[in-house]
Amino acid sequence: MKTRIALLVGLGLLVGCSQETAAPESQTQAPVAEPADRVQVKIDNAMAGWVASGLKVAAGEELALFADGSLDVEGVVFEPRHLLWYRIGEQGIARNFSANQQVLQASADGEVFLTLRPSGLYWPDPQGTYPPGFSEAPAVPVEFTVDVVSIEGSAQQALLAMAAQGDADAAAAVEVLEAADPLPRGFEYLEYLGRSNVFANGASDGRSGISAATSDDFGIVKMPLDLPLNKSTRLSFDWLYEAIPALGPETDPASHDYLSIALEFDNGQDLTWMWSKELPADSHFGCPLPWWDSRETHYVLQSGEEGLGEWFSHDRNVLDDYVAAVDGEPPSRIVGVWFIAVSVFGRQPGAASFANVAISNGDQRFKVFAD
Questions:
Q1: Which of the listed residues 178, 212, 241 is the one where a domain comes to its end?
Q2: Which domain holds residue 42?
Q3: Does one domain contain both 197 and 283?
Q4: What percent of the chain shows pLDDT beyond 90?
Q5: What percent helix, strand, coil does the chain show, rounded to 5?
Q6: What Å distances lie between residue 149 and 32, 58, 60, 156, CA to CA?
Q7: Average pLDDT, integer, range 40-55
Q8: What is the pLDDT of residue 69?
Q9: Which residues on neighbouring strands pair with residue 274, listed in sequence order?
Q10: What residues pair up with 239 in beta bridges, in sequence order?
Q11: In the predicted model, what is the mean pLDDT of the chain?
Q12: 20 in any annotated domain
């Protein structure tokens, strides 16, 4: 779920006065917030684990994080928002950078910690605990810097003032604030994967649903469910694809960019239905990415570019598709509905909308999006 920022708007209070005695100019203008403190943290080893910033904040205090740097992994260039995480206090909840420059509100008192989490590594707890011996592993040189800026008063005012003085990071953070879109009711980003600015409430033409637009990012949003899965269970939905991001077959890790709808099951598996760049309709394959390869299966419903920009309706028997695509004993319950958007490999634009999503069991029908 996108970070929500408490924007405290300073108000200039006019002091009552006669025509002969005007209020001093300083009393009629809104106070301008200033950065209270600013430190720069250098991350030069991908295996360093959590790095202390030296800056302590209080709960409710607003912060700006300005990150810079990149990492080239076999031709795929990762920016700070793809790899960097932060937490407040050693027992704080780990959160990812949803943008290279962002604003947040401290959830607790404590020191700000930063880390680079290698791609494909997932923590076992919300605090971001690395496996034993992680920091003793051979160093992997990287070059990232993060300016941690604590702000007294309104972060928005401070950032605007900093931007007016030529601070490009502050200007970028203001753009992130202004572009933030809420998710549909009941949805949140998968925390272990991280938040991004990919999804927005509502389909592209104003229908109740969800839309995704991305060109160099990734994200998964989920609504928790607890529904039975049996021979009568069906998933129905409408989708409109405007751009398919894959550079080649999505079975190749280097071109595994796609947008899709998925169901998560009580056995830890998820099945995701997608429109493929070139794989044939009714084909299916296991995810080619590490960690995900034992958890996720893809089912292709449409292929190619014919029909882009048009709405299509689908109605699937969930258990039939699961049995056809996934090995092993089938699950008995649906525990979540996901929407997925990935374009981090080829950095090509991807855009799609989903609406009229419903899961039915005979006469019982659950609608994912409220009208």
A1: 178
A2: 33-178
A3: yes
A4: 73
A5: 10, 40, 45
A6: 16, 13, 14, 13
A7: 96
A8: 97
A9: 260, 300
A10: 312, 354
A11: 88
A12: no
Query: Could you give the CA distance from residue 245 to residue 366 in angstroms, rounded to a whole number?
Result: 31
354 and 247 belong to one structural domain:
yes
Residue where the block lists tokens 């202004």: 178
Q: Looking at the structure, do residues 275 and 308 belong to the same domain, yes or no?
A: yes
Residues 320, 188 share a domain: yes
- With both helix axes pointing from N to C terminus, report the angle between 168-179 and 155-164 in degrees, rounded to the nearest 10: 140
Residue-wise DSSP of 178-228: HH--PPPTT-EE-TTT---S-EEES-TTS-SEEEEEESS-EEEEEEEEEEE
Complete DSSP assignment for 6-63: ------PPPPP--SSSPPPGGGSSPPPPEEEEEEEEEEEETT---EEEEEEE-TT-EE
User: Dihedral of CA 333/335/341/343: which sign?
Assistant: negative
Separation CA 247–CA 75 (nearest Å): 14
pLDDT in tens, 3-30: 222 221 121 211 222 223 333 333 323 3
Q: Is residue 82 part of a domain?
A: yes
Q: From CA 15, how far away is CA 27, in angstroms rounded?
A: 7
d(CA 238, CA 254): 28
Amino acid at 74: E
Q: What is the pLDDT of residues 258-309, one digit of tens each?
A: 999 999 999 999 999 999 999 999 999 999 999 999 999 999 999 999 999 9
Q: What is the CATH number of the domain that holds 294?
A: 2.60.120
- 159 and 187 assigned to the same domain: no
- 171 and 245 within one domain: no
Dmax over CA atoms of the chain, in Å, equals 87
Question: Is the domain of 174 the same as that of 186?
Answer: no
- For the residues 238-253, what does the mean pLDDT come to? 97
Instruction: State whether residue 157 is helix, strand or coil.
Output: helix
Averaged pLDDT for residues 80-105: 94
**Is 0.90 surpassed by the pTM of this model?**
no
Q: Which pLDDT value is given to residue 233?
A: 98
Q: Which CATH number does the domain housing residue 146 bear? A: 2.60.120.430
Same domain, 203 and 274: yes
Number of domains in the chain: 2
> What is the C-alpha separation between 28 and 274, in angstroms, rounded?
57
Q: Are 97 and 67 within 8 A, CB to CB?
A: yes
- pLDDT, one tens digit per residue, over 339-362 is 999 999 999 999 999 999 999 998
The answer to whether residue 28 sits within a structural domain is no
Within a domain: 7: no
